[in-house]
Amino acid sequence: MRYVLLVLGGLMALVGGVWLLQGIGVLPGSFMTGQAFWAALGAVLLAVGVILVFAALRTGGRR
Fold first, then answer.
1. What whole-number distance in Å separates Cα of residue 49 and Cα of residue 21?
2. Where are the transmembrane segments (predicted)?
């Protein structure tokens, strides 16, 4: 379960970061460039992804 959370959280953080950067206009060349909706959605997805990664790292202790 730990690895599933790590992979899922990492992918969510990566996609959220790209959407955030496109939404604020840092990564041009997409229909998402400069759109506040994608910036907000990216920020939320990035935060959820980071939380999942931290949760996976905290719960994955040795037995």
1. 16
2. 36-57
pTM of the model: 0.87
What's the first-to-final CA gap in the chain, in angstroms? 14
Question: How many domains does the chain contain in total?
Answer: 1
Q: What is the DSSP string of 3-56?
A: HHHHHHHHHHHHHHHHHHHHHTTSS-SSTTTT-HHHHHHHHHHHHHHHHHHHHH
Residue span of the structural domain in which 8 resides: 2-59
- Nearest C-alpha neighbor of 9 from the set 61, 17, 33, 41: 17
